[in-house]
Amino acid sequence: MRLVIVSLLAAVLCPAVTAGDAPVAKLIEVRKIWDQAPHNAFTDLIRFHDRWLCAFREGKSHVCDTGALRVLASADGQEWKSVARMTWDGGDVRDAKLSIAADGSLMLNGAIRFIKPVAGHVHQSVTWLSPDGEAWGEANKVADPNFWMWSVTWHKGTGYGIGYSTAAKKLIRLYHSKDGKKWETLADDLFPGGTYANETSLVFAPDDTGYCLLRRDGKPSSAQLGTAKPPYTQWAWKDLGVQIGGPKMIRLPDGRFLATVRLYDKKVRTGLCSLDPEAGRLTEILTLPSGGDTSYAGMVLHDGLLWLSYYSSHQGKTSIYLARVQLDPTK
User: What pLDDT is attached to residue 329?
Assistant: First the structure.
């Protein structure tokens, strides 16, 4: 009986954390880390070999013919140096995303917007691989032409990325790879919703359930949350009831989900949100200093703090920012 009472008291004093419990988020610090190009945007952040790497696009404007991907490195998150710059002759290089491949190498993926169509195509997804974040191999053309493989998540030795069609017929397609160089279609037309489904962020839970945060444009334009079990060929979707841009989603060690997105209600901004997958609810818990042309975040939980890269034009010039956020697990 004593053990039962102790267990009951523990449940009352230390209630279990569930995926629907929203953490309290406190902004500890935010700093601008790059503004050297006329337009600096579309970021990602990763912790690799005990240092930080941040990748993003720089160009003359949000859309231009001079876009390139810049990679920065930092030992402490304070001082940053440029270690790589990816260009494409005749193309605008966009949407830098970082991940660690199955063999332990660092992978950077993006997409080329051809200035003039190549063999009738206007977009091509690509990957680069590096042992250290500084020396990069040749670009690998991946996925299908005119499919924009927006981000990649690795799970149990396999990389998964969803590409969205930039051709007349709009659909999204799930690709997978073992080496980051060769990608094959795993499932086609994942969200047959009749609207422009495009940017995605994938997360895999310990039980192998896959979660997909999906941006939609057009009418309706509300975001979707998809779930699937292996082999990830059949997805169920919930409408989140809010329009988003630039989705980035992570799962905390305690099972809760966080997402950083561009929010369009009221003032356009970059918001850190809790995500309840059971209820299909996205709730803003922290507004990052942001406005105008903004969002496209990277998220890394490190030493008890959430580190976020994002871009914003709220101070005038569109620049890259790094934020550190304290999460209160007890709400």
Answer: 65
What whole-number distance in Å separates Cα of residue 82 and Cα of residue 133? 10
- Rounded Cα gap, residues 3 and 73, in angstroms: 52
Contact (CB, 8 A) for 65 and 89 = no
Bridge pairing between strands 224-228 and 295-302: unpaired
Residue 197's pLDDT band (cuts 50, 70, 90) = very high
- The sign of the dihedral angle between the CA atoms of 312, 96, 81, 38 is negative
Instruction: State the CATH architecture for 38-328.
Output: 6 Propeller (2.120)
The whole-angstrom separation of Cα 46 and Cα 108 is 11
pLDDT tens per residue across span 207-240: 999 999 999 999 999 999 999 999 999 999 999 9
CA angle 219, 298, 174 (to 5 degrees): 55
CA distances in angstroms from 264 to 196, 215, 267, 295, listed in the order given: 17, 12, 6, 11
Q: How far apart are CA 269 and CA 250, in angstroms?
A: 19
Model confidence pLDDT, tens digit, residues 22-74: 889 999 999 999 999 999 999 999 999 999 999 999 999 999 999 999 999 99
Q: For residue 287, what is the enclosing H or E element? A: strand 281-287
Distance between the two ends of the chain, CA-based, in angstroms?
31
Other CB atoms closer than 10 Å to residue 256's CB: what's the count?
Answer: 21
